[in-house]
């Protein structure tokens, strides 16, 4: 009834090729933006920001980045944690070296540095494919973590080997450091996520995205019809690492505040983000959001139920949580291997015909 | 003979023995990958689970004691008996076979024909589940595993090398025993897959699922069989690594050590897993010994991966992998 193309007349090319061609989708999109920017910041408190909102926003950025690489370009990567670490350490070095420059610019620069590192580790993808590539990206994961652990220059020779985010402001409001309010953290990450999602969505709709998808579907065939595998694969690695680097920078500077590389950016992080992408849906920007939301909310929910309601000891609850998360992932993969995005797609198809399905 | 050379020889010997252990874990991967096309990340956790179960059975722990206590407020810990190692190992073997059947019934059966990445993620999900399950069942504290394998420095070798080189090599008895066990296991597996009926069926399935089905080989039986074998290999690996460094979470990380071995040797090749393991074992020990001190040490975490990566750039199918032929 509400969700259909008919009656929504396009009178120009730009209208015809807009991101959301269906009116209901557009309105929903503006409504989500209005709620996210206008209503949530008024009510957000420290618990909700730290436990749910900020991790969700940051993981969503990382998941969009990885989804571009895995879902759109078909190059499986297990090095996400390592690339996030590059973003984190880049932003730390920039923040401490140039305190007068805005943190906003630092975060973007950190993304660019990560993109360069990503391209270097993406080079083998021209020779190595499939699982061999996935395991090869683990080289990036382990090497980068080791590098940040062993070379004191990266953590400014601090005695603990940790990096601590100094206090920085955007328009006079603290966004990193101890004085940051929940709202500032939330808004800063939200702005970043919105920008990233806009760029990603439009890249994947355009020439670049179509080249990625051609390479994903069959790289030899794509090469024959004139898609250059070198530039296509490397742009995928670059764009993906750029977003992941931003996520890493925010994860360290805004969310954690202090980080130790092996703990914050270990291989578990790589798997977690890959899970988000797969559960959300490969090759879907919406899926990245859905996957991130699912895997951020699930442990919070389980912890509240097991420890808060049932009153079990925390270590036991942690193990049971691991079991439930693992079991749910397997169950999810069996029930809907194409992820939450596929459920969403099916729902939209149904909506189009509703309430007269024939 | 110059000192450095003698040290390097000792390092090489130790590297070879570590390499054998890597091969052992890699072997489990190769078996499952060949027979079902599943890249089984859970192999390391299987080893952890096997070792936990073995310790639990040996010491007569009550399964799920922690959880039962939390729910009922009781103080259960163990049954108060101690089971001989051999029987405990057999019982653990039975548990691993049961686990293989459950995995086949609940997970693999439903994922036939899915993309490899989905199967891979499913095994990571299984790894999470098993890790939590093992901890809930047997408790998460670090346990010592003792099934009577000899440990400590081998004095015969020390005295002999002392006489030859003027420097006694430090070789652990456990490593020697582990090497012997690994050789035995590989021989047994090769004989099994070459000469037994089930082994032939297994190779047929690895070659072509459809053709194997059409001549009447039960795929599901083969999958249960191969996961049981992988479980058994995991048990052996779990016993050796558990004896070496205690049964704890880090045991499951040996899976990560086996991955570069697989890359180097090729995912589908049993000899590749062995040779790859030896190369990685020796390579990382020698690198740590020669270059490590210059660049801060602890290079063992990544050296194997970088070596495999560089190698693959020149030979994408690995040492013994089948030649990759691509068609449009």
UniProtKB/TrEMBL annotation, chain A:
GO molecular function: branched-chain amino acid transmembrane transporter activity
Coiled-coil region list: none
GO cellular component, one term: plasma membrane
Keyword hit for rRNA-binding: no
Localization, UniProt: Cell membrane
Pfam families named among the record's database cross-references: BPD_transp_2
CDD domains assigned: TM_PBP1_LivM_like (cd06581)
Record carries keyword Transmembrane helix: yes
Keywords: Cell membrane, Membrane, Transmembrane, Transmembrane helix
Topology versus the membrane: Multi-pass membrane protein
InterPro entries: ABC_transp_permease, LivM-like
TM helices/strands, residue ranges: 27-44, 50-69, 76-95, 101-123, 130-148, 183-200, 236-259, 271-296, 316-335
UniProt name for this protein: ABC transporter permease
Organism of provenance: Thioclava indica
Automatic annotation (TrEMBL), chain B:
Locations listed in the record: Cell membrane
GO terms (BP aspect): amino acid transport
Keywords for this protein: Amino-acid transport, Cell membrane, Membrane, Transmembrane, Transmembrane helix, Transport
GO molecular function, one term: transmembrane transporter activity
Predominant cellular place of this UniProt entry's protein: membrane
Pfam families found in the cross-reference section: BPD_transp_2 (PF02653)
Membrane topology: Multi-pass membrane protein
Tagged with keyword Glycoprotein: no
Listed transmembrane segments: 12-33, 40-59, 79-103, 110-130, 176-196, 217-241, 261-282, 294-314
Record's GO cellular component terms: plasma membrane
Family to which this protein belongs: Belongs to the binding-protein-dependent transport system permease family. LivHM subfamily.
Protein name per the record: ABC transporter permease
Organism: Thioclava indica
Lineage: Bacteria, Pseudomonadati, Pseudomonadota, Alphaproteobacteria, Rhodobacterales
């Amino acid at each position: 009834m509400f969700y259909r193309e008919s009656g929504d007349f396009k009178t120009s090319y730009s209208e015809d090729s807009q991101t959301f061609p269906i009116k209901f989708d557009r309105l929903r999109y503006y409504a989500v933006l209005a709620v996210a920017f206008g209503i949530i910041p008024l009510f957000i408190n420290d618990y909700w920001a730290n436990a749910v909102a900020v991790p969700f926003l940051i993981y969503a950025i990382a998941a969009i980045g990885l989804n571009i690489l895995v879902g759109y370009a078909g190059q499986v990567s297990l090095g996400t944690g390592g690339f996030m670490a590059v973003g984190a350490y880049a932003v730390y070095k920039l923040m401490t070296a140039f305190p007068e420059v805005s943190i906003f610019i630092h975060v973007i620069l950190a993304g660019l540095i990560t993109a360069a590192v990503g391209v270097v580790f993406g080079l083998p993808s021209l020779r190595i494919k499939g699982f061999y590539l996935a395991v090869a990206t683990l080289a990036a994961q382990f090497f980068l973590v080791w590098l940040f652990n062993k070379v004191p220059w990266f953590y400014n020779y601090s005695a603990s080997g940790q990096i601590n985010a100094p206090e920085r402001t955007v328009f006079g409001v603290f966004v990193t450091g101890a004085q940051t309010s929940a709202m500032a953290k939330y808004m800063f990450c939200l702005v970043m996520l919105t920008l990233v999602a806009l760029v990603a969505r439009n890249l994947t709709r355009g020439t670049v995205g179509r080249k990625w998808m051609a390479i994903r579907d069959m790289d030899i065939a794509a090469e024959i019809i004139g898609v250059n595998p070198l530039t296509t694969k490397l742009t995928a690695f670059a764009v993906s690492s750029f977003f992941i680097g931003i996520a890493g920078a925010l994860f360290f500077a805004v969310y954690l505040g202090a980080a130790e590389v092996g703990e914050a950016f270990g291989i578990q992080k790589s798997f977690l983000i890959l899970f988000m992408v797969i559960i959300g849906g490969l090759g879907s920007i919406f899926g990245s959001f859905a996957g991130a939301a699912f895997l951020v909310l699930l442990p919070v929910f389980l912890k509240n139920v097991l420890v808060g309601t049932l009153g079990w000891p925390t270590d036991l609850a942690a193990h049971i949580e691991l079991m439930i998360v693992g079991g749910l992932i397997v169950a999810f993969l069996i029930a809907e291997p194409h992820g939450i995005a596929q459920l969403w797609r099916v729902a939209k198809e149904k909506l189009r015909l509703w309430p007269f399905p024939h | 003979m110059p000192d450095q050379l003698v040290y390097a020889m000792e390092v090489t010997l130790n590297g070879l023995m570590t390499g054998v252990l890597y091969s052992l874990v890699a072997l489990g991967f190769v078996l499952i990958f060949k027979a079902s096309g599943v890249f089984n990340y859970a192999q390391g956790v299987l080893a952890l689970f096997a070792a936990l179960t073995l310790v639990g059975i040996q010491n007569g722990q009550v399964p799920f004691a922690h959880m039962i206590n939390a729910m009922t407020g009781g103080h259960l810990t163990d049954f108060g008996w101690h089971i001989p190692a051999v029987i405990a190992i057999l019982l653990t073997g039975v548990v691993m076979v049961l686990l293989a059947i459950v995995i086949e019934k609940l997970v693999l059966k439903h994922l036939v024909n899915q993309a490899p990445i989905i199967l891979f993620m499913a095994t990571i999900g299984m790894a999470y589940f098993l890790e939590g399950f093992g901890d809930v069942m047997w408790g998460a504290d670090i346990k010592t595993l003792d099934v009577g394998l000899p440990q400590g420095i081998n004095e015969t070798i020390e005295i002999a090398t002392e006489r030859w080189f003027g420097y006694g090599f430090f070789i652990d008895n456990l490593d020697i025993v582990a090497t012997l066990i690994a050789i035995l296991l590989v021989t047994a597996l090769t004989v099994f897959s070459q000469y037994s009926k089930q082994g032939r069926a297994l190779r047929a399935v690895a070659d072509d699922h459809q053709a194997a089905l059409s001549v009447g080989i039960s795929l599901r039986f083969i999958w249960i069989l191969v996961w049981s074998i992988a479980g058994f290999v995991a048990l052996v690996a779990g016993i050796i690594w558990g004896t070496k460094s205690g049964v704890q979470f880090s045991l499951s990380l040996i899976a990560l050590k086996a991955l570069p071995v697989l890359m180097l040797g090729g995912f589908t090749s049993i000899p590749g897993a062995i040779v790859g393991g030896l190369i990685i074992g020796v390579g990382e020990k020698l690198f740590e010994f020669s270059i490590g001190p210059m660049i801060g040490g602890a290079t063992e975490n990544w050296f194997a991966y970088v070596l495999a990566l560089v190698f693959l750039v020149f030979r994408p199918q690995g040492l013994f992998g089948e030649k990759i032929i691509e068609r449009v």
